[in-house]
Write the structure tokens for this entry.
Amino acid sequence: MTGGAGTAAHAPSWYAATALSQPDHPRLEGDVSCDVCVVGAGYTGLSAALHLAERGYDVVVLEAERVGWGASGRNGGQIVTGYNKPMGTIERWVGAEDARRLWDMGEEAKRLLADLVERHGIDCDLRWGYLFAALKDRQVRELAGMRDEWAEGYGYDRSRLVGRDEMGSFVATTKYVGGLLDHGGGQLHPLNYAIGLARAAAAAGARIFEGSRVEAVETGTAPMARTARGSVRARHLILAGNAYLRGLVPSVAAKIMPAGTYLIATEPLGENRAKGLIPDAVAVADVNVVLNYYRRSADHRLLFGGGVSYSGFDGPGLRQRLRKTMLGIFPQLEDARIDYCWGGHVAITMDRTPHFGRVGPSTYFAHGYSGHGVALAGLAGKLMAEAVAGTAERFDVFARLPHQSFPGGALLRTPALVLAMAWYRLRDLL
Ligand SMILES: Cc1cc2nc3c(=O)[nH]c(=O)nc-3n(C[C@H](O)[C@H](O)[C@H](O)COP(=O)(O)OP(=O)(O)OC[C@H]3O[C@@H](n4cnc5c(N)ncnc54)[C@H](O)[C@@H]3O)c2cc1C
């Protein structure tokens, strides 16, 4: 398996070092039954569990490792507006009406996140403000097109273009030639958000089991999930393992590619120095296909992410490579020690939009948010809860998004993608 618990990618993170206290949930022992069994305790599974438990369903969550162990506890913490595809492309795929619904639900995803944080008192450093940064004039034009598409097509008035001269007031670098400031995007402490969701789900009555890897599932009329020491029989099954679900259900895995992506955290820089880098504390990401993303932490570090690996290996010198990329943007950090380096697996689809669907009559899945899951995964869980409760219209808007399989199938998709990404990397340089 790519990047198991022992690899550099899954080394201890700054998030783990600053995590809220987290109860240990028991391992599943023996056979239990419930209304809904959820596989995976990231944002998708925890949100599904929370919304179902609030509706009165008896819910069991099975997590192979710990709550938030997957991408939800390791990510860049960036809350991004929209999808990883222009809305114009989505309109061509699904028509104007469904595209409008998808846009509206993308906006709802951010509101839901804010509402969950507030309603459940989740202490996760949530703050708003997001800067897309252009490294080339071509990217400035692309950002202007995106702003126009959002504003004219969907009435979104929360973003504005930032010129080359003004960029310096947001980020202390000369690298960028322009940007798009989005007041509707933001950032949070990802692991603490996951821990807070788990606490809320448990308080609403969901039973969470950790250290309980599902080794086999039955997805017929009476779904079942089996672990090494027990089983759960349920009326409905929700697969929320995302990039980590691997081959459990091959037809579900075929449409996503797990890709490794990584972060480093500097030593604490002190308030003034950190403020000097990003005065308004916006979250920042460039718009390369293989992008870099960064933000300030609450304890005044720079959390800097980027790099991507499709090959299945973390690669040597990960920490040094990321540091070098960071210094390309902030040479003034030459003397800053790197305290943490970690990563995880993000699930991307060929079409870069989320993949939702059913296997059999009462098994649902949602995954492949393609780098937009901090906001979208919580909504996905809520939509699966709606579907289980009998109202699948909104879930089905996502399920209608078309998805190609990766060329080469499960065996050859990695080499094919490595080639495609090599082309994109080249394009990023042009
Ligand atoms: C390094 C990194 C940076 C990222 N940065 C961003 C970002 O800045 N913004 C953004 O929007 N998105 C980002 N993402 C993506 C985002 O983190 C994900 O889209 C989101 O967390 C997905 O949540 P999830 O619950 O679907 O999956 P996960 O959080 O991965 O949870 C899946 C869980 O299922 C469990 N599981 C899998 N298989 C089984 C099994 N057989 N039995 C039991 N349990 C199982 C896993 O252990 C895991 O805990 C990033 C991802 C990574 C890895």
